[in-house]
């Protein structure tokens, strides 16, 4: 069972920045296409895809975060990062990482990001 552990969330003012980290406890990490997702606390909301970083290093972003968020990885540390800048109130959510394939690893606990003045 792969364990995913997200960290780095917190409370930040609009326009601020945060960098999230996610450690994936698996030797498969370096070959995995990794993604970040987020979920607001409204009941029934599905997880929203945020960004993907493919193992060949190219990346895709949701339109809502393009130009503001950057996904990166350190295969030696089995860690994927999400650098978030120019944060907006609508970025408030619990952020999760997982592989980008249809079949996911078990979800971690996520990390809460709250953007508020």
Essential attributes:
45% strand, 4-stranded antiparallel sheet, mainly beta, 10 strands, 117 residues
Concise account of the structure shown:
The protein is mostly beta strands and 117 residues long. The chain has no helices and 10 strands.
Written overview of the protein:
The protein has no helices and ten strands. It has strands spanning 4-7, 10-12, 18-24, 34-39, 48-53, 59-61, 69-74, 79-84, 93-99, 111-115. The strands form two sheets. The protein has a six-stranded mixed sheet, with no helix packed on it. The protein has a four-stranded antiparallel sheet with strand order 1-3-8-7, with no helix packed on it. The model has no long low-confidence stretch (mean pLDDT 95). It is mainly beta and 117 residues long. It is 0% helix and 45% strand.
Element layout with pairings:
Elements (H helix, E strand, L loop, with lengths): L3 E4 L2 E3 L5 E7 L9 E6 L8 E6 L5 E3 L7 E6 L4 E6 L8 E7 L11 E5 L2
Parallel strand pairs: 2-10
Antiparallel strand pairs: 1-3, 3-8, 4-5, 4-9, 5-6, 7-8, 9-10
Helix fraction, binned, reads under 10%
Bulk shape: globular
Q: Provide the gyration radius in Å.
A: 13 Å
Largest sheet entry:
6 strands, mixed
Strands of the widest sheet, in order across it, are 2-10-9-4-5-6
Distance between the termini: 39 Å
* Average pLDDT level: 95
Backbone structural class: mainly beta
- Number of distinct helices: 0
Low-confidence stretches: none
Assembly state: single chain
Order of helices and strands: EEEEEEEEEE
Number of strand segments: 10
Strand content: over 45%
């Amino acid at each position: 069972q792969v364990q995913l552990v997200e960290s780095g969330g917190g409370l930040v003012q609009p326009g601020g920045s945060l960098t999230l980290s996610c450690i994936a406890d698996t030797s498969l990490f370096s070959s995995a296409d990794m993604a970040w997702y987020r979920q607001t606390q409204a009941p029934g909301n599905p997880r929203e895809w945020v960004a993907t970083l493919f193992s060949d290093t190219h990346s895709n972003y949701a339109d809502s975060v393009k130009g503001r968020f950057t996904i990166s990885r350190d295969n030696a540390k089995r860690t994927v990062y999400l650098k978030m800048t120019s944060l907006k109130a609508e970025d408030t959510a619990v952020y999760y990482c997982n592989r980008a394939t249809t079949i996911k690893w078990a979800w971690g606990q996520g990390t809460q990001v709250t953007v508020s003045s």
